[in-house]
Amino acid sequence: MKELYLMFFLILSPLISQDTTIDLNNIPVLFIGDSHTSNHSWGWQVILKNKTKLKLHNTSIIGKQLPWMVNVAKKTITPYFKYCFIYGGVNDLYGKRDPYLVFKDVQKIVNICKKNNVECVVITGVSPNCIEPLKDSRLFLKNYTKYQQLLIDSTTNAKVINITTVNKNDCFDWVCHMKYSGHKKISELIIKKMNFKSY
User: Which of the residues 71, 100, 109, 130 could staple to 176 if both were Cys, CB 3.0 to 4.6 A apart?
Assistant: First the structure.
């Protein structure tokens, strides 16, 4: 009888589903960004924290550009953190910075993460279809599209998450500062793409 039970166990054990999600409960996670990550009440990073129980450390400040974020990364990123999320670039591009230089700054932060054994996640930002610039719209949208493509095609040693789920209905304004619906969509997409455990 024991032999029969063992045989059934060996046959069925590969079929037993295992939890392969990544548990962030009480895990330190760093966020570096601008206004898109500065909603401290119900921003996407807060929703992500509430759903995964991660330990949130948010350095994001409204209006900041990538050179500032690189300096924050140099001062802040240590092996203490498990993950670092980067979401920026719009302010640089609206200030007419070369999209390639903006991308290179993102890669600098990624490289600092790698040196400290921190897993880096780069957020591309919303689709260009969600943005309606107030001035110089053609140049801005051209540079914004180029920047996003550089992030997707050329970023190394990081997970790049392309935000495809947010639409204009989720936006408050021309640069798509998001309503709760947009923040919720981003957090849900991150959980899905990163295979994070949701509580």
Answer: 130
